[in-house]
Amino acid sequence: MPILVSVRPLFTAIFTVLLLGVTAPAPALAGPTERSAVSVDLTRYLAVHPGGTVLNDNEISYQDGELIVTLKPAVGVYGVADCPSGWFCFYEWPHYGYPRGKLSSCGWQNLANWSWQFRVESAHYNLGNGYVAFYYHQSQELFRVGVGNRVRSDAAPHRNWANYVYRHCS
């Protein structure tokens, strides 16, 4: 019996610590945790795809804004073509799964300049004229999106083949 009496304060202390940990207010924990998760996402992306400049907690710019990468969609927006007006976008996953890259320049673009070669699985064209063709080595057109056909939710059978794009602006 004397052993049980001396152990009881230890169990009481452990129980109190656990109880306080469970009842800690959520807002006090949410701020730093969210910021840390954002920083981790940006850090991981830049480690694999170097050379970008962080614009905010969800976007990275490459080559002075030629390409903008958005890491995650807006809250509640999943599986929807959501390219902003004035850009054409390509997504790393089918059905517009993020990360998303967006370009607007006319002519040839080498996706390797931004580590986007062999990563395109869906696309959305949100410009007023023209179209963009996705190519394998500037010689084989894989698919296109444009004014007449703005979206391609799945680039199959050419997922992850594109390494160049050519935007026809007229």
UniProtKB/TrEMBL annotation:
Keywords: Signal
Protein name: Peptidase inhibitor family I36
Highest taxon listed in the record's lineage: Bacteria
Organism: Micromonospora andamanensis
UniProt signal peptide: 1-30
